[in-house]
Specification:
CATH superfamily: Jelly Rolls
Number of domains: 1
Largest sheet: 6 strands, antiparallel
Structural class: mainly beta
Shape: globular
CATH topology: Jelly Rolls
Strand order of the largest sheet: 1-2-5-12-7-10
Strand content: 35-45%
Oligomer: single chain
Low-confidence stretches: none
Helix content: 10-25%
Number of strands: 13
Mean pLDDT: 94
Radius of gyration: 16 Å
């Protein structure tokens, strides 16, 4: 399938951070174990796709841990900026012999950005626990990132929306 067919079949819509998504699951079971003690879904899941016309998932962080699962298309490059300033680059894709990964865990509190560097699309799923809530996500702002990580600005500036 091409990107347009997948967008239609999976009911994907534009995402605030870039790319396209569709929420596929949100558990009816709730937990109060979140950082703010507000009841949240135990788990939520989405399809997420970057395309050649929307190739960047802009730098953002979530309070919850997220597991990313590669499904198909071209590989996606992840930049993970840890609270201690360590910058990690991981490629999610099917070429395991060349160091790509099928699954990636990004801990809550880490900044992350994603890029489709070539190809028409890259399709993944994400499982979030506790479940995703928009108020638990922060899009990076230039001043925040420059102040916290000035030494990394040249490497991550293109991922700021």
């Amino acid at each position: 399938m091409n990107k347009r067919q997948l967008i239609e079949k999976l009911s994907l819509v534009a995402h605030i951070e870039g790319g396209y998504f569709s929420r596929t699951y949100s558990s009816e079971l709730k937990t109060c174990l979140s950082a703010d003690s507000k009841p949240k879904s135990l788990l939520s899941s989405i399809f997420y796709m970057l395309t050649d016309d929307s190739p960047i998932g802009h730098l953002h962080k979530n309070k919850s841990d997220i597991i990313h699962y590669f499904h198909g298309g071209s590989p996606l490059t992840y930049l993970i900026l840890h609270p201690d300033g360590r910058l990690e680059k991981i490629i999610l894709g099917a070429d395991l012999d060349n160091g790509q990964q099928l699954q990636l865990i990004v801990k809550g509190g880490c900044w992350k950005a994603t890029e489709l560097e070539s190809g028409e699309f890259g399709l993944i799923s994400e499982a979030v626990t506790p479940g995703f809530e928009y108020e638990d996500m922060e899009l990076a702002e230039e001043k925040t990132i420059k102040d916290q990580f000035p030494q990394l600005w040249n490497q991550i500036s293109k991922y700021i929306r």
